[in-house]
Amino acid sequence: MPVARLKVWRGGDDGAYEDYEVEYEEGMVVLDVVHRLQATQTPDLAVRWNCKAGKCGSCSAEINGRPQLQCMQRMEQYPEDEVIQIAPLKTFPLIRDLVCDVSWNYKIAKTIPEFQLTAPDQDGNRRMAQIDIDRGQEFRKCIECYLCQDVCHVIRDHPDNKDDFAGPRFFVQLANVAMHPLDTNPRRDTVDHGFGLEYCNITKCCTDVCPEHIKITDNAIIPLKERRVDEFYDPLRIIGRKFFGKK
Ligand code: SF4
Ligand code: SF4
Ligand code: FES
User: Which of 7, 86, 193, 200 has its CA 20 to 30 A from that of 163?
Assistant: First the structure.
């Protein structure tokens, strides 16, 4: 039976990596090995998980320095002598071992405008083009794993920005409202400065780590930035607002 060589973060902020060796079987993923470690050597190891199917977004961690879902990383990909380092997400306050406090994200979620739908057509239905349905479906694939939030340097390297920056997961949610053809929220509310879109310099790191392969930068952030420029800096709109009170 192959043996995994693990380096796992233990404790809180003043903790340290500890080395473990755990036997594993073909077909196992990193989360299976962490569970076996917990069951056989470290019963107090804190690790969050739920579905083991890449759908609940709970088991996010940094594996060999890359933000990933532990349940989606097969052990076969690591050479047998490789040490696999498993760390908690760096961007959020650490609770213990591999578990972080991600509640900042829930606070941001409450600030995203809700859909305000148009009135239905006379026959009681609402209609939209297939291209708009496809776009919305991409945005709704998000499993709220917060890997994109974790990797984004705007808050990872500058925690103070958390007061002014919603982060890529919420730019996806914002884009879902702002680009929905049946939404009637004032455009300014969905592309407002308050979400910190201007801090993003389109590095695409968020897109690179998204396990749902949402094109966060190309399909959400860049179109939102374009809308924001139209809304706040288009001279014709500025004149319209000034002289005709147009929104
Ligand atoms: S593209 Fe923008 S939101 Fe995404 S990781 Fe880079 S700076 Fe952050
Ligand atoms: S956008 Fe992707 S990486 Fe970000 S929280 Fe949603 S699923 Fe996770
Ligand atoms: S346990 Fe649900 S995504 Fe990994």
Answer: 86
Asked whether the beta carbons of 97 and 11 are under 8 A apart, the reply is: yes
Other beta carbons within 10 angstroms of residue 166's beta carbon come to 24
| Amino acid (1-letter code) at residue 155 | I
**Which pLDDT score, from 0 to 100, does residue 78 have?**
97
pLDDT score recorded for residue 247: 55
Place of tokens 């001279």: 235
Q: Whose Cα sits closest to atom 6 in ligand 1?
A: 203
89 lines ligand 2 (CB under 6 A): no
User: Domains in the chain, please, with CATH?
Assistant: 3-100 (3.10.20.30), 103-244 (1.10.1060.10)
Atom 1 (ligand 3): residue with closest C-alpha? 52
- Say how many C-beta atoms besides its own lie within 10 A of residue 44's C-beta: 8
Mean per-residue pLDDT for 180-203?
Answer: 88
The pLDDT tens digits for 65-82 are 999 999 999 999 999 899
- 84 sits in which H/E element: strand 83-87
Task: List phi, psi (to 5°) of 28.
Answer: -75, 155
Cα–Cα dist 169/174, whole Å: 9
| Confidence bin at 245 (pLDDT 50/70/90) | low
Q: Looking at the DSSP assignment, which residues form a beta bridge with residue 118?
A: none
Nearest CA residue ID for atom 3, ligand 3 = 54
Q: Work out the number of other CB atoms within 10 angstroms of the CB of residue 74.
A: 12
pLDDT band at 145 (very low <50, low <70, confident <90, very high): very high
